[in-house]
Amino acid sequence: MFEFDRGIHVQGTSLWLDSKIGREFSFVSHAHSDHVARHQRILATPQTLRLLARHFQARETTSLPFGESVEIADGGTRVTLFPAGHILGSAQILVERDGKRLVYTGDFKMRSGCTTEPIEVRECDMLIMECTFGRPGYRFPPREETIDKIAAWIDSVHAIHGVPVLLAYATGKAQELAKALGDRGYLISAHPHVHSVCEDYTALGVRFENLERFVITNYRNRVVLFPPNKRHSGDLMALPKRRTAFVSGWAMGEAAPAQIHSDAAFPLSDHADFDELIEYVRQARPSIVYTTHGFDDFGKHLKAAGFRVKPLAEAKTPTGQLALFEEE
Ligand SMILES: [Zn+2]
């Protein structure tokens, strides 16, 4: 039903799933740049197309809202998009043909956020799953607990008349922070890139309180929100008594703040943690799981939980074709 060659190709159709190289027709699961290439035609949710539009224009787009199905032009194959809970508009895809069901998750998380659609899990025969945090060391604390800790850290920096600077990915994570902290009454001063993505989120129905675009002269009693790749920018360096905190799933562990050269680190993630990955597979009840991203040893944990599993990259026969439903 599919083959893997620097992307996942749905056999018998022209459709690829999150292909890393430009194709005639590809599903794009969400608006992170590592999931999109210069395709001629894109299948995505309306939210993802809106978020992509600032940076990228496909020649042709097929906008498919959550829960709606479409027969792809090649015939005999139906696809449906449903929420992945990763960032706003992020989708999983269900491919149905000859009574068989394939689900590709893209990036996902099980826990809810305040700017993303809640995830849905659908039962399937074959599951291709993103497993970024597939190690038992990655068990994230409850979201509200982490937001409480970030708020306490901000208060402690304000108490010494310093400027708290949160470093978070510009699309998705930054909006989660802007929304959660803005709703608690903190005045958020967002890097222009972060702010422009917030404007897209607003157009898509997410309301932000206490949000302004960063201006170098206005930093008192603000929370400055910048993407990690701008952490050495002159604007930040000019802020007196600045303290930085990196907000990411990679912030697990005592050594994290030193590794990422920040004063603090908080594990708020847009990805599933170890327990969420296992729980997802329990609910989807696939007969085989193909794993992508993450650590090599995650497959062992899934096998121990009673599932058949293969790394996607190794799931190739010498002809490049995947023989699905074969017995090992
Ligand atoms: Zn992503």
For this entry, what is the oligomeric state of its chains?
single chain
Inertia-based shape: globular
Please state the second-level CATH architecture of the largest domain: 4-Layer Sandwich
pLDDT averaged residue by residue: 90
Order of helices and strands: EEEEEHEEEEEEHEHEHEEHEHEHEHE
Q: Class by helix and strand content?
A: alpha/beta
| CATH 4th-level superfamily of the largest domain | Ribonuclease Z/Hydroxyacylglutathione hydrolase-like
- Which CATH first-tier class of the largest domain would you pick? Alpha Beta
What is the fold-level CATH name, i.e. the topology of the largest domain? Metallo-beta-lactamase, Chain A
The order of strands across the largest sheet is: 7-8-9-10-11-18-19
Topology diagram in text:
Layout: E1 2-4, E2 8-10, E3 15-17, E4 25-27, E5 41-44, H1 46-52, E6 60-63, E7 69-71, E8 78-83, E9 91-97, E10 100-104, E11 126-130, H2 143-159, E12 163-167, H3 173-183, E13 187-190, H4 192-203, E14 211-213, E15 222-226, H5 234-237, E16 242-247, H6 256-259, E17 264-266, H7 274-284, E18 288-292, H8 298-304, E19 309-311
Parallel strand pairs: 3-4, 4-5, 5-6, 10-11, 11-18, 12-15, 12-16, 13-14, 13-15, 16-17, 18-19
Antiparallel strand pairs: 1-2, 2-3, 7-8, 8-9, 9-10
The structure holds zinc ion.
Zinc ion is lined by residues 30, 32, 86, 107.
